[in-house]
Write a structure and sequence with these properties.
It is globular and about 55 Å long. The protein is built from ten helices and eleven strands. The chain has helices spanning 2-10, 25-33, 50-59, 81-94, 132-135, 149-162, 168-179, 182-209, 234-243, 273-287, and strands at 16-20, 37-41, 43-44, 47-48, 64-67, 97-101, 126-131, 143-146, 213-215, 223-228, 263-267.
């Protein structure tokens, strides 16, 4: 809902929104539904290409840039500090809004999470979005949004039209969990658990599917971005795996234009070690 509200408030028909050459599909749909045109920019090992963004800005007016900087969706790449600062500079110089979607901010394994760009935004150019559904539970449909006061006021008005009061009981319950320290304790436990599951899935993929897939171990997040060998049809693998009880994304939603990535996100957070063993065994058997 946060992304939808932003899209409806910021975008007019024909506005240009810059996103990654592969991006969060739900955000793409929200911007397009609002009438915006998506301009795709390359994602590399340092995140979104800010030099390419500046080249576009020199040619036409940009309304906003949408990024998932902590762990890019879907590739899990972390946006480098240099490019974060460059994005802030470009937003100020060319007058576009920077939509910072920190959907899995709490789960960073190599170090403490990197502060959001919103924390050093001195010119009111950043809208930061976060969610409790990754932090605490997928069924907990509560999120938060940080932005300049004028934007918050406009978004609140639109939210009131869509959903008059929200879920006060659920929001109060979450406030109590923050207040008594439950969220903090849960995060410490979850971070250790997901870290171990990430490492275990990486080990299983290397041991069982070294000739069939390649991946870079993500520094955080809840999934491993996995590239399948060009001889393997990922949609066929997903279909056959489903018949054996393993659900994986077939990767089609990550393809745009001529790009055929033959890659998908393999989630590990919801599976214990035995379930990860079974999942990779099914994947191996289906491929071979």
């Amino acid at each position: 809902m946060g992304i939808y509200l932003i899209a409806q408030q910021l975008c007019k028909k024909g506005d240009t929104i810059i996103v990654g050459n592969t991006s969060y599909f739900a955000a793409d749909m929200a911007f397009q539904y609002a009438g915006a045109h998506l301009q795709r920019v390359k994602i590399d090992t340092l995140g979104i290409d800010t030099d390419a963004i500046e080249k576009i800005c020199k040619k036409k007016k940009i309304r906003a840039v949408y990024v998932t900087p902590h762990h890019h969706f879907p590739t899990t790449v972390m946006l480098s500090a240099c490019r974060r600062m460059n994005l802030l500079r470009l937003a100020e110089k060319y007058g576009f809004m920077l939509i910072e979607d920190d959907y899995d901010y709490d789960f960073h394994y190599a170090s403490s999470p990197i502060l959001p760009m919103a924390s050093v935004d001195n010119h009111g150019m950043v809208i930061n979005i976060g969610t409790m559904s990754k932090t605490f539970s997928p069924g907990l449909r509560v999120a938060y949004l940080v932005a300049p006061k004028n934007i918050i006021s406009a978004l609140a008005t639109l939210r009131f039209i869509i959903d008059r009061q929200g879920d006060y009981l659920l929001e109060q319950a979450i406030a109590e969990l923050f207040k008594d320290g439950s969220i903090k304790r849960h995060l410490r436990k979850a971070l250790l658990t997901y870290h171990a599951r990430r490492d275990y899935l990486g080990k299983l993929l290397t041991t069982n599917l070294a000739d069939d897939v390649r991946f870079t171990m993500p520094s955080g997040g809840l999934a491993i971005w996995t590239q399948f060998h060009k001889s393997i049809s990922l949609p066929d693998v997903a279909s056959r795996a489903a018949e054996k009880g393993l659900i994986i994304n077939d990767g089609k939603i990550y393809n745009h234009g001529v790009d055929k990535l033959n890659a998908t996100r393999l989630g590990f957070a919801s599976l214990n070690f035995n379930e990860l063993d079974k999942a990779v065994r099914i994947l191996r058997d289906v491929i071979r």
